[in-house]
Amino acid sequence: MHIGFLGLGNMGGPMARNLLKAGHQLTVFDLSAAAVSGLVEAGAKEATSPAAVAQADVDVIITMLPAAPHVKQVYLGEDGLLAHVSAGVLLIDSSTIDPLSAREVASAAAHNGNPMLDAPVSGGTGGAAAGTLTFMVGGSEADFQTAQPILATMGKNIVHCGGSGNGQVAKVANNLLLGISMIGAAEAMSLGVALGMEPEVLAGVINSSSGRCWSSEIYNPFPGVVETSPASRGYSGGFGTDLMLKDLGLASEAAKQVRQPVILGALAQQLYQAFSLQGHGGLDFSAIIKLYRQEDQA
Amino acid sequence: MHIGFLGLGNMGGPMARNLLKAGHQLTVFDLSAAAVSGLVEAGAKEATSPAAVAQADVDVIITMLPAAPHVKQVYLGEDGLLAHVSAGVLLIDSSTIDPLSAREVASAAAHNGNPMLDAPVSGGTGGAAAGTLTFMVGGSEADFQTAQPILATMGKNIVHCGGSGNGQVAKVANNLLLGISMIGAAEAMSLGVALGMEPEVLAGVINSSSGRCWSSEIYNPFPGVVETSPASRGYSGGFGTDLMLKDLGLASEAAKQVRQPVILGALAQQLYQAFSLQGHGGLDFSAIIKLYRQEDQA
Amino acid sequence: MHIGFLGLGNMGGPMARNLLKAGHQLTVFDLSAAAVSGLVEAGAKEATSPAAVAQADVDVIITMLPAAPHVKQVYLGEDGLLAHVSAGVLLIDSSTIDPLSAREVASAAAHNGNPMLDAPVSGGTGGAAAGTLTFMVGGSEADFQTAQPILATMGKNIVHCGGSGNGQVAKVANNLLLGISMIGAAEAMSLGVALGMEPEVLAGVINSSSGRCWSSEIYNPFPGVVETSPASRGYSGGFGTDLMLKDLGLASEAAKQVRQPVILGALAQQLYQAFSLQGHGGLDFSAIIKLYRQEDQA
Amino acid sequence: MHIGFLGLGNMGGPMARNLLKAGHQLTVFDLSAAAVSGLVEAGAKEATSPAAVAQADVDVIITMLPAAPHVKQVYLGEDGLLAHVSAGVLLIDSSTIDPLSAREVASAAAHNGNPMLDAPVSGGTGGAAAGTLTFMVGGSEADFQTAQPILATMGKNIVHCGGSGNGQVAKVANNLLLGISMIGAAEAMSLGVALGMEPEVLAGVINSSSGRCWSSEIYNPFPGVVETSPASRGYSGGFGTDLMLKDLGLASEAAKQVRQPVILGALAQQLYQAFSLQGHGGLDFSAIIKLYRQEDQA
């Protein structure tokens, strides 16, 4: 297949490489010449604008961009994709943006004669490189069936979440709960240890009981409890506090738009914000446990 | 074995019956004559005061009482257990109280020459009747080994959590995280559905992703998602909001005593309190999702 | 003076009338024909588009619009003010919008050769009719001096808050604190009364002590304490919960843009949101005290 | 008058001195010999136990103790006041404790034939030395009239708050609102400054508008805005974070006892707790603004 790919950053770059490896023909665009030349060396063809990608006789276009304004610009701008792409070309946006913006762009695409899917990912740069991302996909069943084999070359868990925008909804809702339960795990672990329990024993009890969650089991924020978690390597790597902050911002913004309360979610967002203000935005988000421990503690 | 048992309420009553069924000899005490006579019919011997239980030549005494003041009265009062029990008799308190009170009583017991364990349970009245409770046990390894077979006649999961008071610590920390993650699950499910997703699909995505927790998987608060959860039967049965409120009260009190913040935990406690004030204290705690849904919604 | 006025709603309508009463010549525009004809009867001249207002040889243009997208459309759109207004005409936006949007429009105006002020108001529809509004004004000192006498025909308290956007900043910061202290007053009054104090006595102590605030003194949320407050007339009139919600939304959005935490502010926003979801968005915002009182209480 | 005084710490010491200066005869008790000898030098007579004070033929007894357990011990203990004082002697407790404990002790005093008032103070060690404290008094009108002239030698604002315990209720409710509005002021000031306003200008707008509160006007947490506030001298002196934490702990505890939510109050308590954990418990409570500012900021 001939695929257009826009956005070759930390996530998009390795995703595009996996498409090449799977034998697809690629025409790519990015504002960074370095990012483009890396892909060209790997076998992709360069395009000098979104419009040029749209006019390159592609079957599918995939975008991986930082935020909603970039997505709107690339799809809806004068020199953008919709103004130049042929009807029928399938559009897949893997950016993480708010669901209402996703639906707005998909609606414009539909008016243009183009099927469109929102397909945000989880799994981080490691998953992008290894081709093990999870894709949460919103759009019609037929379009999902078309996209599934393409996405499967970049990820291993491809989930259809329902109609347009629902990929974004699923991601935002999941990460809302994740951001809350991580702070909950941090509070429970810190309290239990302050009251005299060994962290490993406490985690063992919780993980076999009703407090059990991904944040206590797989990604426990207390140092030393889970060997492979960021907590056991100084909170480096993993999913940065500022990325969690972005996703909680999307959640509270989407909640505001539909007049839905997210009480613990809004508080969690502010705690990560306060933590980021203290200079810790680059640490894995499980480092939020530092708010609950004295500075000289592990 | 000859076991003294004090506190024959909704939990203690069925627990005592399971001890009888296992062949133990029981001497029981409760302020309610009806509760006592039920056990006497089942084969227990009645004592007319805590002191009388202590003097009945028992090997072990188990208590199951409503709150810390009752525990202190029964163990430390003038007519209480410690004033009359023989040295060496093992004391097991299965009440849910704050860890510091548990340690205070255990320390007094030690001065009296009595080994003591704190052994709060989870599993509810259903687990008490079926003999499938979880016991979280604090105290010495040797005393735990002695108690283990006795507790095993009333529960199926007997966990040693470390030294004195740690059974209470484990329960309080687990339920703190549970109280938080349930509200988190309620917010995530409500938001996702308000944004257009099917609740079953959303729960499926979350439960295979990083938002996964006991509250989303086993006990999902959205009606209809988990057939066996209280949400699917009008929030009846289960673990009442006012019981969760009691446990979060213990958690925030214990946190205050050791000067440990529990930020989301304190907010969760207040939300359950506000919900209880609206008249819903008797509903299962997952009914907290009603704060996030319009009244005419399911 | 010849003044253009766009936006003749509940606030803009009476403000424009006060300008007419003060002897100014008015050219007005609104999407609602009824709103326009009312002003025309009072002596204003009608314009059929923002562009037509801009081309009507006005000295000053004042806008009073619902939200930032409307402001951007009216000023920056193809048929908007900046595309057609003569250089040098002073632009005054009295809409309440986020500070960054205000600065973006003012910057575009400056590039167009037009001085611009942001001048949001407080005082409600009553103040608009009576000409007693407070104007919080952002922009240069010279432009503020020019605008001052014009604004003084619509308000009695005209405050210069510093450079462009600072009028919006002042309003957003004030209302953030107001939204928080009202809930604080509701909690303190409800708690004191639940613990046995007479509400009037409690308010008296607080108002002569360090808990004193506008929300306890002038606008006490407990019924009967302040005779003239909405609480004493069933929470009708006043400043609606949904308007407070809008302003807290602007505050948390502006905070997100500058990466500043607003922890109590975000929680306050969510509590008003939950209260609105329960169907109370039209009540005065002091009705939030209902979250803290049983339904059958006054 | 002959007055017994127990508790000669930072507050009680200077209060007792003011009673001596006013010409009263004093019999004093404290566990600290140094504290006692200071008062003896100033003219007081020493007693060696609470019982000895009670038996010293006093007309009135005043207590100023750290917390409820001390109050209960001194009044209700075997060697305590009630066991030895003559009927009719007026008892005044100026300690800050929870209202329910205050009522429990007053009820025991009444059974003993002793009228009792709870009379917690505000005004700090400065007010204690200067004799300018505020007394919030709970008890009967007649007893209040008796106590008024005595309290007036130690304070200048003596407020009758209603029946027994209501002095404590008033203090707890006032400080709950104070603790909340201070954080609100910190958020509003930090946000406004981050968005580009001068702190003095912002405070000026707020203090002439609906955000106005004691925390913004008299005690503004932003450095340099109010010359006499702790913020303008490095947050030294004033009302320590750990004292605010104690009072919010009393508020949330009292709220729990009457099943009343204090949502912002509980969050405020946790934020002061987290701030204290970071090592700032000794700073004035307005230093909480540091949570909202980068470390290198003023």
TrEMBL record, chains A, B, C, D:
Keywords: Branched-chain amino acid catabolism, NAD, Oxidoreductase. Residues 3-162 form the 6-phosphogluconate dehydrogenase NADP-binding domain. InterPro entries: 3-OH-isobutyrate_DH-rel_CS, 6-PGluconate_DH-like_C_sf, 6PGD_dom2, 6PGDH_NADP-bd, HIBADH, HIBADH-like_NADP-bd, HIBADH-related, NAD(P)-bd_dom_sf. It is an enzyme of class 1 (oxidoreductase). It comes from the Bacteria. It catalyses: 3-hydroxy-2-methylpropanoate + NAD(+) = 2-methyl-3-oxopropanoate + NADH + H(+). Pathway: Amino-acid degradation; L-valine degradation. Residues 165-292 form the 3-hydroxyisobutyrate dehydrogenase-like NAD-binding domain. One of its GO terms (molecular function) is 3-hydroxyisobutyrate dehydrogenase activity. The active site is at residue 171. One of its GO terms (biological process) is branched-chain amino acid catabolic process. Its EC number is 1.1.1.31. Pfam families: NAD_binding_11, NAD_binding_2. Belongs to the HIBADH-related family. PANTHER family: 3-HYDROXYISOBUTYRATE DEHYDROGENASE, MITOCHONDRIAL (PTHR22981:SF7), 3-HYDROXYISOBUTYRATE DEHYDROGENASE-RELATED (PTHR22981). This is 3-hydroxyisobutyrate dehydrogenase. The gene is mmsB.
